[in-house]
Predict the structure.
Amino acid sequence: MNVSDNFEEYDDPELYDFENDTFLLDLPLIREFAKQVEGPVVELACGTGRIAIRLAEEGIETVGVDFHEKMLTKAIEKAKERELELSWVLQDCTKLDLGLQSSFIFMVGNSFQHFLTNEAQDKLLDSVHQHLEGNGIFLFGTRFPSREELIQPEKEEYWRSYYMPSGEKVNVYTVSHYDDVKQIQTYKTIRRSAEKEGLTQIQLRYVFPQEMERLLQHRGFTIVQHYGNWDKAPISNNSSQLIYICKKKS
């Protein structure tokens, strides 16, 4: 599967922003590290700039990288509206060529799950490693592969509802299937309103904690800390996230 084949959920940046832009639980931890370094911080898979723009508003020099042109275009528009100076780069995160090194690179929004194969994960981490300064920090988060997360109904299930700015009510349903061998969950999301119905599909790779530890160590990283959510809780069977703070090995 090509990376661009897994983009349906991001083809409407306006809707993506409406559903996701107010999520800020990850911002305090990112800010904590971003404020400690000199020079640019780099956000990979920055999307529409949810975090990058907020860092720039605090005077932090930020570079946003994404492979989805529509999402990056939306981020650029939002930054211009706020009269913020950021660098935006349209690149595949497994083939980074930014012409710089940074002391702090991060990737959130569970974007690590988009790297579906061992080869893709290796290339991503190698790319990050090459762009980190000595002892630089890489911070990222991904969903915790709990039983509740993986064993979801393979039939349509109600998820949530919300109202669009127009007042239109949207009901959201999901259908999922987990491939035990490939560790990939295929999600179908159905958004229904009185006037229309939309369907998107996305595939997400899950990684287990001990598997992640070995992966990071083999790609040249030392794990400084890991958490089970953005409030710095330890990883447990009840975790919702796997959050890793890694240091580049010299």
